[in-house]
Automatic annotation (TrEMBL):
It holds the Pfam family DCC1-like. GO terms for molecular function: protein-disulfide reductase activity. This is DUF393 domain-containing protein. Signal peptide: none annotated. InterPro entries: DCC1-like, DCC_oxidoreductase.
Length: 142
């Protein structure tokens, strides 16, 4: 793990890692950007290498999911846990989704994996990441 000034600055910031070639993931990032009430979420494509530089190998799941990973307070959250934690940062009614954490994790992750497995069929695949506006660009860390 390579630590540099930029990596050290990201340590305390919540970061949404997403599949940069997935149309569904890019649409989800757009939704989060639009509804992030505190404008405190940052974004990086999983393909950017930021996650590898930020989180020690021993703290990363193996294999690393290829759809969404959420980094908050020094911890990684994956699958449905990532989605529910991200929802807490959004405008009403999205934070209500966090109460779904009481549904058994196995069932939540089953639904998450089903959607993740079919996301390219739902929204397609792109060769490159979306181009954020100049205001949004400041929230992308890579």
């Amino acid at each position: 793990m390579i630590m540099n000034n930029k990596t050290e600055q990201l340590q305390g910031k919540p970061i949404v890692f997403y599949d940069g070639t997935c149309g569904f993931c890019q649409a989800s990032v757009q939704l989060v950007l639009k509804h992030n009430k505190g404008r405190n979420l940052n974004f990086a494509a999983l393909q950017s290498g930021v996650l590898e530089n930020l989180v020690p190998l021993s703290q990363r799941p193996d294999p690393l999911p290829d759809s969404v990973v959420f980094y908050e307070q020094g911890r990684l959250f994956t699958e449905s846990d990532a989605v529910l934690r991200i929802a807490r940062h959004l405008n009403f009614p999205f934070p209500v989704l966090y109460y779904f954490r009481f549904i058994p994790l196995s069932f939540r992750n089953f639904l998450y994996r089903f959607i993740a497995r079919h996301r390219y069929k739902i929204a397609g695949q792109t060769e490159a990441c979306m181009l954020p506006s100049p205001e949004e660009r400041a929230r992308f860390v890579a």
